[in-house]
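Why do we bother with holo predictions? Because pocket geometry can differ from the apo form. Keep that in mind while you read this record for protoporphyrin IX containing FE.
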Amino acid sequence: MPHQEALTVIARIRDGQVTPLKKMLGSIREHHESWDLVPFAKLARVHFARFMVFDATHDLDSDSLPPQLVLLTNVDAPLSDHLEELATVCADGLDRVFAHCEDYPALNARSPTTRVQFLEQHSCRSDAVHVNRRGRSVEQIRQEESLRSEIDKFLDANDFDAVVPATLKERITAFVRGRSDLAWALRPPEPPALSWRIKEWAHKYFSLLAVLLLSPLILLCLPLFLYLLRRHERRDVPDTSSASAESIRAFRDDEDFWPHNQVVAVGLFKPGLFRESVARVILRMADFATRHIYNRGILSGLNTIHFARWVTFDDGRRLFFTSNYDGSLESYMNDFIDKAAWGLNAIFSNGDGFPRTEFLFCGGITDEKAYKRFLPTRQVQTNVWYSAYPHLTTKNIANNEAIRRGLSERMDDEQTREWLRRFGSGNRLSESGWVARQLDSLPWERICRHCK
Amino acid sequence: MSTLQVKEIQGIVLHGYGSLNHAGFLLLQVQNAALVKVWLGTLPLRTSEQRPEAADLCINIAFTAAGLKKLGLAEDQLGMFAGEFTEGMTGTEHRRRILGDHGESSPEQWRWGGPGNDGVDVLLLCYAGDEEALNRVVERTVGDYESRGLRLIERLGTVKLPDRKEHFGFRDGISQPAIMGFDEEGTPGNMVAAGEFVLGYPNAYGQYTDRPLVRPEQDPLHLLPVAPEAASHHDLGMNGSYLVFRQLSQDVHEFWNYLAQQAPGKFAGDTTQACIALASKMVGRWPSGAPLVNSPQADNPALADDNDFMFVRSGDADGLKCPIGSHVRRSNPRDALDPEPGSDRSIEVGKRHRIIRRGRAYGPPAAASMQPGEIIGKPADNQERGLHFFCFNTHIGRQFEFIQYTWVNSPKFDGLYEDDDPLIGDRGATEQTRGGVFTVQQEPVRKRVTGMPRFVTVRGGGYFFMPGISAVRYLASLK
Ligand code: HEM
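The structure, written out:
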């Protein structure tokens, strides 16, 4: 199975083209069923995709920032195949959308090659990407859902009251074996390519080695760091303004058509070398954490996120965060406050206007009122949004995979019972790794009480 | 811990008025604001100081945003109310989506509170021990309406069913949150900060929920208390609460008819027993009220008011006793959800999504005894009956709407697939949100029923604000 790649294309919108472009892109509420101009559904590798427009604005020094069009996709590797597909299958739509941008190949120069070139030249690295489960392809997700649904029908059609678990499992396996369209399920999914796994492994251990080598220096600098941090935290001014009722309402109008929702937040980094360096280090750590610690379905206590990413842009002056998650924005915000405050504080507290934190991890998001007021002031509308499986939650997807894996696993009686409980509902996620579990069980509320 | 100012909080917020079996809910329109304000100034509103006796007559009052505006409340104060309240229950497409108000339940079809209906400004709640006394109190309070500057849009009646049942045949009004600083008794897992239900007190995050404050010069008579966390302001919200009102029509015949088609053969016993077994799985309690968690095999009237249970901690992590999708489990999951099912942390997170329910049934019972055995098999009588559901909370989005969308109507609740609330779910407006499946976890493998129709239809509703006693006086004094 392929690993996942995150494509970010950012292109400057030509003068006077913002309004027509926005008109062309429309809004989620207008075309949540499907948007035919760029038919993402025809691309086999796409999990999620979106177009959005960042309006012209200015930074803290009043330098202006141009209006920009952003295309994001989360896809199965290799990325080159995805670009190729985009440039051919979606050629027409791509041309019509990006024609509003600077540098897009002129009419007579458009070809799959020049389109791919444009996308590559304007693509930008993500600082960190959270993938709910690395290595799970769109195809696998869809196949395993149909497996689950077929087995459910089989279970509905028969009376198993008097059957013992082991026999029932055999009957289910026999049913799957008997269906040529499901026979693939009798083998566990393949892991991602060996070369990719080696690369990830190397990244993990080289990073750890680097930290180890630097640790004396880190320890030495810690007191100074804490001193500076507290000074900044006391002096930084939280933004207490509110978004207008109309803009909040416009965001809501694009939400809750499906079990999935999305959010984008864009912000400027706080000024100064200190915050800049902290932000850089923290984003590095976030990259490490999403790749090596929180890589089994849970991100800092949250298990409802399919894909999320952090991208620094505008020459390092701004950061955007996007997420594709299950449930309403209200429940997502509550999850942030209730379950994931520390990790998100560490990242976002380097953003201008963020609610006041204490020692990087405490305060901040846990101020429910301040956080729920702040978020809409930094939110940006997504115009076009696509999900390849809008009716499946992360829990559904994980449960389906566990059902599939179970078919080819040997189990004792207790394991068989547990596996059988996965039909109809699945809230048992596979466990996070050891480090993630330790982090998530830290008593942050108690720790933070001492930080006040 | 802050002790509540019970003399300032309207009585129905903190008491259920269980001893008063008769109630009438008056939907009123303000015709002449000046007259209404005179009337408001003299209204003998019942406070929360004492639980009512059977002979008491109690009235309480609440307002819509439109009503407050008509009384002359300034725009800047109106803007400080919760957005859900000022936008209103039917105000946006998004809100209809999350509340499940589509199809027959869409606000265009409503009898009151919808865009096509007369605008409701005031909700007057009247309670008494018998029907005659109730009529007397209504007469005495509003008389001919016109002389008070009011117009009656509708008077909604209620009915008291035997054993405190709702129309499907199950005991209701058992589980309520215990309120810190008011309820002395209560298990720690059920003790919720007062600010979740009454404005002006710390909420479950230890914060004061946003609410309208006024500058001292806007309150020259100093009728309002000083805001506890902002001494420079007077507090118009303090001791008030948001009242969520939904008129929910119940198709009792369809409910038991569906069960009679599905349950026999899947569940043990004769048709009646099988139907009751499946229906109880759907509710999460038996008809008597006994919780499935503590009495999984059979009804046990001795446990009718038992509310001392969790899910994971009570040994039911997998829903083998009380199904994951049952109404009771999904409207208050107690310790069952993330971050760590069965832990104090999960219980604390759950406390941020509680409501106080004060609804009353209306319409004639399908069978006088309200025993399911007698309701089953009754022919359809096309009578309008249901629940005047109402609840109190201070953060509508995080409490009522959250329960309704993230738990009740969500086919994905706690790892489910296509199961919305079997009792009251909206069954989904689109393919992606489709519900209508109910899964009963059991050994060796789950059973499920599919194609479940919608049993509950919305007939009306609105978001109201029930001010504290002083705030009502303040409204009466507005120029
Ligand atoms: C016609 C509609 C409804 C019927 C027939 C109904 C019926 C019931 C019954 C029989 C109970 C168990 C008794 C008890 O614990 O008090 C219950 C509990 C409950 N219901 Fe409903 N209900 C309805 C609508 C709603 C709505 C719209 C909500 C909220 C969105 C809701 C929220 C709750 C809550 C929070 C509980 C208590 C759960 C607990 O704490 O264990 N109900 N309901």
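Residues B 166, 168, 170, 172-175, 248, 250, 283, 285, 327-328, 331-332, 355, 357, 386-387, 389, 403-404, 408, 423-424, 456 surround protoporphyrin IX containing FE (CB under 6 Å).
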